[in-house]
Amino acid sequence: MTLSFKLVATDGIARAGLLETAHGAVRTPAFMPVGTQASVKGMTQPALRAAGAEMILANAYHLMLRPGAERIAALGGLHQFMNWPGPILTDSGGFQVMSLGKLRKISEAGVLFRSHIDGTRHQLTPERAVEIQHLLDATITMVLDECTEFPATDEAAGLSMELSMRWAARAKAAYMPRHGYGLFGIVQGSVYPALRRQSAATLAALGFDGYAIGGLAVGEGQKCMLEMLDTTLPALPPDRPRYLMGVGTPHDILEAVSRGVDLFDCVIPTRAGRTARAFTSRGVFNLRNARFAADPRPLDAACTCPACVSHARAYLHHLFKSGEMLGAILLTWHNVHYYQDLCRDLRAAILAGELPAHAATLRAGWQAGEPDANCKGA
After folding, report:
1. Which of 155, 313, 328, 340 has the smallest CB count inside 10 Å?
2. Same domain for 142 and 8?
């Protein structure tokens, strides 16, 4: 193994760990803001660091199409290209390829697809996916997988999972190990427990630096997602990081951390910020709502981000009603900051052996919501 991962503490089956990489350390549980095209929408790199982010995600599919992996390599790699010195995990593009629908054709060799940008033809194989991520200088490389569509029959999900496992073996053979870098396998199997366990066992036998759980948060619902985690996580090596791909809401993250997940990514906090939604200790606020028009309070009194420290809810409401881009920037910063604080506090609770009590406090705050400014007790 070329990545160092150490479990620092556990609370039940929840874990606090330290992932040490060639580009710095990551304290887990950790949330990775999504910078699909080498940019986290609405955030500068200094802002990301100020919010507490230690590792971010970029996408090999998008970067191979524009500006091209070879060009980024010639410019010094992704860290230099986007001025992010910390760790970067790159998604291989399996999910994006799935979303192309009729523009792609999957075979044993890999995926033949047409670019959604200009219609040009490309072939992405497990070996080429590894090569692209090597050119990008990704700290953590993801194997190419087929993200099984939902819903899928047991038979279709099984065939898809087995193809992904054969691709994972090819990616492992093509990967060039380097100190402080790593290759993660991806568990598939849709919503079928036996397939999930088979996939996890196959990947564990191959031996990866970390293990991702893919193919969830695609329409199956939170209850089913958590059931898949309950059946999958015990089958994964306990001494390696576990990454739940594309998840999710603060409640999703709390439930997954409680089950032993270490890493997360999702577009939800940045996308929500651009559409006036803010995640807070008292639930989700929509800043377009008229109830905020004359509200002088900070967005979340428990938060230290610029939106909360320097501006009132009334001002944030005004920005969105006026179509000012600063509103989206400030709420994106807040949401990214909130997600970082969420994971930091979950880690602290695990270290202190107080996760159940902390989780109860979080749930109670989200469920209770908040009275309007003019209500008694506000």
Report:
1. 155
2. yes
